[in-house]
Automatic annotation (TrEMBL), chain B:
InterPro entries: Anti_sigma_zinc_sf (IPR041916), Znf_put (IPR027383). It comes from the Bacteria. This is Anti-sigma factor. It comes from Phytoactinopolyspora halophila. Keywords: Membrane, Transcription, Transcription regulation, Transmembrane, Transmembrane helix. The chain crosses the membrane at residues 80-108, 120-140, 161-183, 189-208, 215-234, 246-263. Residues 8-37 form the Putative zinc-finger domain.
UniProtKB/TrEMBL annotation, chain C:
GO terms for biological process: DNA-templated transcription initiation. SUPFAM superfamilies: Sigma2 domain of RNA polymerase sigma factors, Sigma3 and sigma4 domains of RNA polymerase sigma factors. Belongs to the sigma-70 factor family. ECF subfamily. Residues 122-172 form the RNA polymerase sigma factor 70 region 4 type domain. GO terms for molecular function: DNA binding; sigma factor activity. Residues 26-91 form the RNA polymerase sigma-70 region domain. Pfam families: Sigma70_r2 (PF04542), Sigma70_r4_2 (PF08281). InterPro entries: RNA_pol_sigma-70-like, RNA_pol_sigma-70_dom, RNA_pol_sigma70_r2, RNA_pol_sigma70_r4_t2, RNA_pol_sigma_r2, RNA_pol_sigma_r3/r4-like, WH-like_DNA-bd_sf. Gene3D superfamilies: 1.10.1740.10, Winged helix-like DNA-binding domain superfamily/Winged helix DNA-binding domain (1.10.10.10). This is RNA polymerase subunit sigma-24. Keywords: Sigma factor, Transcription, Transcription regulation. The keyword Transcription applies.
Length: 256, 281, 178
């Protein structure tokens, strides 16, 4: 039996504040997420990346509470447990050009402290899931932007994470890859919590079960993509119904 | 294995007419027993449905047997290799640079005047610096491209840092010793002790400033200190920092640095840098 | 038993690119794997798909197999990952929501003829007396070695339910054997 069982909320953020010097990046965010694919929408500079970094355990909060998988992130003892079950792909992810796809994914499998005997199969599985099986032994410097992004996703899912954080994951993917990627996201979201930060409203409309809109460091909208569409019925700004909803949510928040 | 599944049980299992408890027993045994697996294969061959499914699945597999690629077994030694080799410093370019620098230092060593009126072997100056630069290059978050993802992993904190530091020492110290032996430059103990103290001080300082800055500060302090001690006292044969008398001091510094690292180990759990200046919003 | 090579030897040969050895490995191990998969998912087509995926993964990873005599457990562990993947894909397709639970009720009943068993007779009786739901979670977590989360995905029930059922099943078995 696996000792680390998930029963409560995957992500539980209460009144999260993050300040850099005098600047407030997040100003009292509340967020509760369970299994499923969750979209995090917002204009550039709204605080999406900061929120992702706090959830990825690489940045610390100024105040408020953050717990992942029922572990309080402020407790150092719990941090290690949480990190083993986390997957993270930052927007700008560094890579080692001379590594092959397989070595790159394997590197993170080891860093995530996976069982040695499980590593080769997990690496193979992750590479297969992102559709890079035939390029597994190519060096990263030989890959296109879209393929690199997929290698990044492979490292994020190699440990079959309970919480998967992807910051602008569709950047560099062509339309066909984007469709495949959304399919993969839905599959992962069946039994884990996927949070996708994006500025592309269409990604959210197609792939996500829930949406959170962030603006000026606050969560200004939470609901399903349909709810967001409904929020935009009275405006005409935007090319699609969900885009109108997004614009309306941001405007309503700014008026307050 | 003394016990094997009876033919009766195998055929009941193959046809699905079997109680769960018996099926479990059969399955547990099959997992471990090759002979009964083969016997079940023979049994299944007589079942039209099963044998058809097995026969028809093969072409789909056979058609997709691409070349297997360079797969490696998962083991602790493989883990060490991957974790160390990922560091930029482990690359051949860095290794070559280290050798070249030391060779130059060793070659020029004995005759190069440094400071005013005193000769300091360049090797003594350079050798303690190399491990620090190596650690900075192999772990410093500004230089390791993947630091942001690494910081989110359980194995990316102090464990990786110590592993990389040890690997850097394992490369640079032998090179330094060989260079020292070739040039016949005195006892290596003073500069070995200095090396150890400098690298540990770098790690201790890194818990506050990050590895890159810590390496820069300690490196600059080392060079400045040497220059000052060489300029200050021209009667000494070797500068005070590389004098055998300084060894106990270096060891004390090392112990203190270890204590600081141990106390502040949690600081290594987070990145010291924002993700990317452009992205921090 | 045909052939002289063991499964371990066949796997190692396959790991260095020997297709003939791999085909023999397949012919020896496809049957038990397919039957076991069918018992788990109750869907012959899905079981065959998962078996194909599994053997392809085995081919790619054969060189990493380092056990001696543990190839059965190794093969099954690959198969369970692929089975869970297949369930995830099915659950992710919106049009088939709810379908995942179908076929997962383990079909056999205790009235089937009793067979020679490596378990004690008491344990066998106690296991067969458990409700199908309790047996299913025990099978997934104990016999198949799945994590709670994987069992939950496979059985299409919440993780908390898996845990409580495992607890209950263990308690009932303990009482029955006391």
């Amino acid at each position: 039996m696996n000792a680390s069982t998930m029963i409560g909320t995957h992500v539980d953020v209460r009144d999260l504040v993050v300040e850099f010097g005098k600047r407030t990046a997040l100003d009292g965010v509340d967020l509760q997420l369970d299994t499923g694919v969750h979209g995090l929408l917002g204009p550039n500079g709204a605080g999406k990346t900061t929120l992702m970094r706090v959830l990825a355990t690489v940045a610390r909060s100024t105040s408020g509470s953050v717990s992942l998988l029922d572990h309080d992130l402020s407790k150092q003892r719990d941090l290690r447990m949480v990190r083993r079950r986390l997957g993270y792909l930052p927007q700008q992810f560094g890579y080692y050009p001379r590594f092959t796809v397989r070595e790159f994914v394997e590197y993170f499998a080891w860093l995530k402290e996976m069982t040695p005997s499980a590593v080769p199969l997990a690496v193979d599985h992750a590479i297969e899931r992102v559709g890079l099986a035939d390029r597994a032994d190519d060096r990263l410097k030989k890959l296109s932007g879209g393929m690199l992004r997929r290698a990044g996703i492979a490292q994020a899912i190699v440990n079959d994470p309970d919480v998967l954080l992807l910051d602008e994951p569709t950047a560099g993917l062509d339309p066909e890859q984007r469709v495949e990627f959304r399919e993969l996201l839905r599959t992962i979201g069946v039994d884990s919590c996927v949070l996708v930060a994006t500025h592309l409203v269409e990604d959210v409309a197609v792939a996500c079960t829930h949406v959170t809109v962030v603006s000026d460091g606050r969560a200004v909208f939470r609901g399903t993509p349909d709810d967001l569409v409904a929020a935009g019925e009275d405006t005409s700004d935007g090319d699609s119904p969900i885009e109108r909803g997004y614009t309306a949510a941001i405007r309503a928040a700014r008026k307050r | 294995m003394s016990w094997h599944v009876t033919g009766e049980a195998l055929s009941a299992y193959a046809s699905g007419r079997i109680a769960d408890s018996d099926a479990w027993s059969v399955e547990m045994h099959l997992t471990a027993c090759e002979r009964c697996r083969a016997a079940l294969a023979a049994e299944a061959a007589t079942d039209v449905d099963l044998s058809t499914a097995i026969r028809e699945s093969w072409p789909g597999i056979a058609a997709n047997l691409s070349s297997q690629g360079r797969v490696r077994r998962g083991s602790r030694s493989r883990e060490l290799i991957v974790l160390i080799a990922a560091g930029p410093a482990a690359r051949w370019a860095w290794f070559t640079a280290a050798v070249v620098v030391l060779a130059l230092a060793a070659g020029l060593g004995a005759v190069t005047p440094f400071g005013r009126g005193q000769e300091i072997p360049l090797l003594g100056v350079v050798a303690p610096l190399l491990p620090i630069l190596g650690v900075a290059a192999s772990y410093g978050s500004g230089l390791d491209d993947a630091h942001e993802v690494i910081a989110s992993t359980p194995g990316g904190g102090i464990r990786l840092l110590l592993l990389r530091s040890a690997s850097v020492l394992a490369v640079t110290l032998p090179v330094g010793l060989i260079a020292g032996a070739v040039t016949g430059y005195g006892s290596p103990i003073p500069w070995l002790a200095a090396s150890l103290a400098l690298i540990l001080t770098t790690l201790a300082l890194a818990s506050v400033t990050g590895v890159g800055r810590a390496a820069a500060i300690v490196g600059a302090a080392w060079v400045t200190g040497l220059a000052m001690s060489a300029a200050g006292d021209v009667t000494q044969a070797a500068p005070a920092l590389l004098d055998p008398d300084a060894v106990p001091v270096w060891l004390l510094v090392s112990v203190a640095a270890v204590a600081v690292v141990a106390l502040r180990r949690q600081a290594f759990n987070y990145t010291s840098l924002p993700a990317h200046p452009r992205l921090e919003n | 038993m045909e052939g002289t090579r063991t499964d371990d030897e066949l796997l190692r040969a396959a790991g260095s690119g020997d297709r003939v050895a791999f085909e023999e490995y397949y012919s020896r191990n496809a049957a038990w794997l397919l039957i076991r998969l069918r018992r788990r998912c109750g869907d012959a087509e899905l079981a065959a798909d998962v078996m194909q995926d599994t053997f392809l993964a085995v081919w790619r990873a054969a060189a990493t197999y380092s056990g001696s005599g543990q190839s059965g457990g190794w093969l099954w562990s690959i198969a369970t990952r692929r089975l869970i993947d297949a369930y995830r894909r099915r659950a992710a397709r919106p049009e088939s929501a709810g379908e995942a639970s179908e076929g997962l009720v383990y079909t056999s009943s205790a009235e089937d003829e009793a067979l020679a068993s490596s378990f004690g007779a008491e344990l066998a009786v106690a296991l067969d007396r458990l409700s199908p739901e309790l047996r299913a979670v025990l099978q997934a977590t104990v016999l198949d070695g799945l994590s709670t989360r994987e069992a939950a995905t496979l059985l299409d029930i919440p993780e908390g339910t898996v845990k409580t059922r495992v607890r209950r099943a263990r308690l009932l078995l303990k009482e029955a054997l006391a």
